[in-house]
Design goal:
Elements lengths: L2 E5 L5 H9 L6 H16 L4 E8 L5 E9 L3 E9 L8 H15 L5 E4 L6 H9 L3
Parallel strand pairs: 4-5
Antiparallel strand pairs: 1-2, 2-3, 3-4
Helix pairs in contact: 1-2
C-alpha cells in the first residue's frame, strides 16, 4: 500500500476521531485533548504540527502524528494508527515524516518522544524506529 503524508486539514476531523476512539488506551478525554492540540497547531504551526497518513489509492486516513515544536526539539506527543492497519508500516512512515520535518526546520537538532511507562507497545515501537 502506498502511503501519502500530509498536513492535517479540517476534513480529517471525523477520521481522526474514529482512530482515537477505537485505539487501545484512549477515549473521550484523550480525544478532547487532541482536538485542542489540533486547533492550536493548525492555527499556529510554529507551536506544533499534525501529519496525517493516508492511503494513496483511496484517500482513507490511516493514522496521524502530532508534534510540539520547542526551542531546539520536536516532541512527538501522539502517534496513532487506525486499528485495522496496525503493523503495516504506517507508524514508521509517520516517523519518517517527522524526521523530514525536523530537517526542514533550522533550529531543530533533536526529536523526542513522550509516552507513558504503561505503554510497553509504544516504547517498543519507538525503539524499533531508533529512539
Amino acid at each position: 500500500m502506498k502511503i501519502i503524508l500530509r498536513d492535517y486539514n479540517q476534513d480529517d476531523g471525523a477520521a481522526l476521531e474514529d482512530i482515537i476512539l477505537n485505539a487501545e488506551n484512549f477515549g473521550e478525554v484523550f480525544l478532547e485533548s487532541e482536538k485542542r492540540k489540533i486547533t492550536v497547531f493548525t492555527a499556529h504551526p510554529e507551536f506544533g504540527r499534525v501529519l496525517v497518513a493516508e492511503n494513496a489509492a483511496n484517500g482513507q486516513v490511516l493514522g496521524y502524528v502530532s508534534v510540539m515544536i520547542e526551542w531546539k526539539a520536536i516532541v512527538i506527543s501522539s502517534i496513532i494508527t487506525h486499528h485495522d492497519y496496525l503493523k503495516q508500516g504506517i507508524g514508521k512512515s509517520l516517523i519518517a515524516g517527522i524526521r523530514d520535518l525536523a530537517q526542514s526546520l533550522p533550529l531543530i537538532d533533536v526529536i523526542r518522544v513522550d509516552t507513558g511507562d504503561f505503554m510497553d507497545y509504544a516504547q517498543e515501537f519507538y525503539k524499533s524506529c531508533g529512539f
